[in-house]
Specification:
Low-confidence stretches of chain A: none
Mean pLDDT of chain A: 97
Oligomer: homodimer
Largest sheet of chain A: 7 strands, mixed
Strand content of chain A: 15-25%
Radius of gyration of chain A: 27 Å
Structural class of chain A: alpha/beta
Largest interface: A-B, 115 and 114 residues
Shape of chain A: elongated
Strand order of the largest sheet of chain A: 8-7-9-10-12-11-17
């Protein structure tokens, strides 16, 4: 043990005081949630974890994830006790100009992954643990969870995957204070039930009194001795508001700071020092990560007129970028034979993570891997990415470097029917600040999309299709983010048709049909939906006297149509062709006909202009 | 026992044959997944369940949810064996004009809730079970799950809530065939592990050989005798493709029909009758549900100039509509003191369901309750509804009569920071076909929004705000879906400003400031974001020479701005004011200033025109 129990108790006391002062000063926050976890936090930070407070980038630092993100003041206080932040800064909690936010975000260098939406921290922790395994660095990851958030299914997804991956370098510490936000939790103080749940999911689990330092310390020791290849759970019985009698174990105090006038009384109960105030870091050193490669470039070698599915080209390109950049890894949700991420499994088995049918955890693990410098490519059916929207949203808050690929886009998947059709995925990813959305229409542009995503810093979404389509582009064509391609153009174009993915082919068919009728149209492949090539689109609209048709295999709300409307504003009359009702099962061609996005519908829309 | 084991085996054989024939005919589908579950299905449908095949609306019918929705052919076959559908119709599986879709949807009268996105059926089942409890009708709900889908956290959310609610009328039957889509599952054939997981979550759980009828029957009997007040799980070891040697327990057959040329050989292995072909329904009768009330009308009695939060008005109105319509129930995710759904808990405790911090399950349970004729109002923070997007998407596919309320919309919540801010919720709900989105700006319109939602048939989303705002409308003002209100208007309006919710108040402040500068603006409260009052907005745009500003406390993508753009097209120049980066913690007024949606920004935008 690094320090005396008394020194650890003293850190716990100081962190309680900091949490109370900061939240009272801010006029908001969750002090009672901080107080229940202060003793656990002290043992984790000042005894268990090995890290260099002066160097957040030391690759061998132990990692900490505050899954119960509303206890942020406790984290900021721990940082102050390590010297990571200044003591006086703690009182700037929640201010507009402070990086000490109400819930942790990576504006703070030591915070890898934003938390505050509950139940997501264990997934991020698992991502860290898997990165450690991959990089062969023996750091541990500690995740502090609340009990209320263990109702979130994502916690049990992470638990199952942690067991499956033998993540013995992952610790879940659960602060069981029995009180949720609006009432007592389902399991209240039944720490044995929590432990039984973890054991049923394959963890080594112990229960402790979360305010008894000797018990907590012994529990970590026992985990080390007996945990074997299992992930470790320490389930701690605690009291919300512990240490302050006006708060302790009382309902109605969640998210409420101690009023200014009551603060002195509360602090008085904590004024007696409990031990020496000392902390000496014990970093793990001597590990380095390889330097990041120079920008990734791949070679594409499709044959013109070749027919290939963009989803399969995704798989091909995934291997190619992985050849060039060792940071690239892939995750999939038991769809790897459909998304073709299985090609990376074959080429680099250590760098492929089968995440099974649990998309929330898959997205969360990816953010953890990205925090450790990996470049994760996450794939499943586009429709099933909606399962992970909250995790994707939080990845956005973290500005995480995760790439997503949603396959089986649109009604064009055919007979499987609406449950399997991605029809809202573009809308979902458009809402993520800074996201890039690429929707390639052929195998060449699909490979280039993967290449772009691998290079780009930030969230990327690639939409891939199930059916085979003709190769349209030459192998050396480049597809910069924010660009578009004009596939048909003449001096007499009457209408601009903007499409992406599967509808590009419909638009080209329509162009041929219209040509036979003496009508020329401009066809634009808007492969970069976000950012969209606003200038290019506006120019084309002007050249066709403001007549624009947008056609997409997606609902009409929030997709390519809305992106084009946003780009052109009132500079064009835009007709949107998209899906506008719940589709049904049927053959692909019949469905694109029925749902108004086929070449015949494009022809009609052009003629109607 | 209703029938001889041999008769049940014969039903199993017939359902295997039907599944093979239908999928081979369709050229797609999941026969191997049907074959593993056929024996379980036979016992459930032809021995356990009491229902009237002639009357899907008998309120006392036992309920069935096919959580592993890809086994739809098995369900259609069971229906044929009951006489619900015609035998020959089974060969129309997946055709464009057939209601026998690839995955079950409520196009088929007996299917309450669309499935096919895995891990959602147990929540829907729990909703049914809770409805039975509420209506005091002793029907049981049987949910057939796959093993792969038990990786989905939503299953464990449902499991926890089922235990908490003592749902002894809920049965989960798990078809453990050890094979997922792309590889073997995590737990493979370890049925004991599955059972231990269910027991850890508080269920009564048994394991059986899923192809041994005596064992399956005895297990149900034992559940009845010993299950007590616990929900019941029967975990069955099965073989994917059971009964056909070219399929049985072999990888690589997920989602693949037997090729036409191989079908005779496969069928030959199943040609020997196993017993008499007989089924006699044993419906439970004598229960009725009260007639639905005539349209709900509530009385609103706010004082002008009163200051109230729309979230609190939501709570008030929830009680008022519940007074008028006994079908109304409420669900909340441990935020009831923030969303004010707690007011319904106080008024009608039996009709309030605390769903704890598990939003996926909450949404799924709501679809189950709605299938049983309840009108569920589901509330939590708007940001956390993203956790349930896949369930909301599937509620859309089911055209479920569920109402959602997302509180704490936008940056205007203040210091809690981005993890708690709903900034993409309007975009999310816009993608649900047929959805209604209402965003009231004051307490009167908030109460009317609840009234409208209670009356409307289909998914409704109400967005509520945290801060108190002034009451603007008179108590008798009506707020029809698809309407808007013009709050400021003159003959000299230069610009139309369209707002909703919190930004209506900013727009009014801006109007006053501009008035002092001699500039008149039209202010429209677009409380109905979907469907939007396109005619009204276009008329206003024309009256202000095409100058339109839209201001929303939401990201710029997919929200009110995009809805307005879609409505006006090129008939106006639309300037969108919305949030366009990840926000941070800070005081509400400072945040709306910083993120460009305050009255001063509206004033600047008007002046820039």
């Amino acid at each position: 043990m690094a320090f005396s129990i008394d020194a650890l108790k003293e850190k716990g006391r100081r962190m309680r005081i900091d949490s109370l002062k900061a939240t009272t000063e801010a006029g908001s926050g969750h002090p009672s949630s901080c107080l229940s976890a202060a003793d656990l936090m002290s043992v984790i930070f000042f005894n268990e974890m090995r890290f260099d407070p002066k160097n957040p980038h030391n690759p061998a630092n132990d990692r900490f994830v505050l899954s119960k993100g509303h206890a942020a003041p406790l984290l900021w206080s721990a940082y102050a006790e390590c010297g990571i932040v200044e003591q006086e800064d703690l009182l700037t909690l929640r201010r507009l100009d402070s990086d000490l936010e109400g819930h942790p975000t990576p504006r703070m260098p030591w915070v890898d992954v934003a938390t505050g939406s509950l139940g997501q921290g264990l997934s991020a922790g698992l991502g860290n643990a898997l990165a450690a395994r991959l990089d062969e660095i023996p750091y541990n990851t500690y995740v502090l969870l609340g009990d209320g958030e263990c109702a979130e299914g994502s916690v049990w997804e992470a638990a199952a995957l942690a067991h499956y991956n033998k993540a013995s370098n992952l610790y879940a510490v659960v602060d069981v204070n029995g009180l949720g936000q609006s009432q007592r939790t389902m399991d209240q103080f039944d720490v044995n039930r929590f432990a039984e749940k973890f054991r049923a999911f394959g963890w080594f689990a112990l229960t402790v009194d979360g305010h008894n330092y000797a018990e907590i310390l012994n529990a970590f020791e026992k985990c080390r001795r007996e945990g074997g290849d299992q992930p470790r759970a320490i389930v701690a019985k605690t009291f919300k508001g512990k240490g302050v009698s006006m708060l302790e174990n009382l309902e109605g105090w969640h998210g409420k700071p101690v009023p200014k006038q009551d603060l002195p009384k509360a602090l008085a109960e904590l004024e007696k020092p409990l031990g020496p105030n000392e902390f000496k870091p014990n970093p793990r050193t001597g590990f380095t990560l390889p330097a990041a490669p120079v920008e990734v470039h791949i070679a594409v070698s499709r044959k013109p007129g070749e027919s290939a599915a963009t989803r399969e080209a995704y798989g091909d390109a995934l291997v190619k970028v992985a050849d060039k950049d060792p940071r690239i890894v892939a995750l999939d949700g038991d769809t790897k034979n459909s998304t073709f991420s299985e090609k990376l499994l074959k080429a680099y088995p250590r760098r492929f993570f089968e995440m099974f049918i649990a998309e929330q955890n898959m997205a969360g693990v990816a953010t953890g891997l990205a925090a450790r410098g990996k470049i994760p490519f996450v794939s499943t059916f586009a429709a099933f990415l909606t399962r992970a929207y909250d995790q994707i949203r939080m990845a956005g808050v973290s500005q995480s470097n995760v790439k997503f690929c949603g396959s089986h886009a649109g009604v064009s998947i055919g007979e499987d029917g609406p449950s399997q059709m991605g029809l809202e995925d573009i809308a979902m990813f458009r809402t993520i600040p800074g996201s890039v959305i690429l929707y390639p229409c052929d195998a060449v542009s699909a490979e280039r999309a993967v290449e772009q995503a691998a290079r780009h810093k930030g969230i990327c979404y690639i939409r891939s299709s199930r059916p085979k389509t003709a190769v349209l582009y030459s192998n050396v064509e480049q597809f910069p983010i924010g660009g578009s391609k004009t596939l048909r153009q003449s001096a007499n174009d009457r209408v601009t048709v903007i499409a992406a993915g599967i509808t590009v082919h419909e638009a080209l068919k329509a162009a041929s049909k219209l040509e036979a009728d003496g009508i020329a149209i401009r066809v634009i492949d808007a492969y970069s939906i976000k950012p969209i090539d606003a200038d290019g689109i506006v120019a084309a609209a002007k050249a066709t006297e403001g007549r624009v048709i947008v056609v997409e295999d997606h609902y009409e709300e929030g997709g390519l149509g809305d992106a084009v409307l946003d780009a052109v504003g009132n500079q064009a009359k835009v007709v949107k062709l998209g899906v506008h009702e719940i589709p049904r099962s049927g053959p692909p061609d019949a469905l694109i006909e029925k749902y108004g996005i086929s070449s015949s519908h494009i022809v009609s829309a052009v003629k109607q202009f």
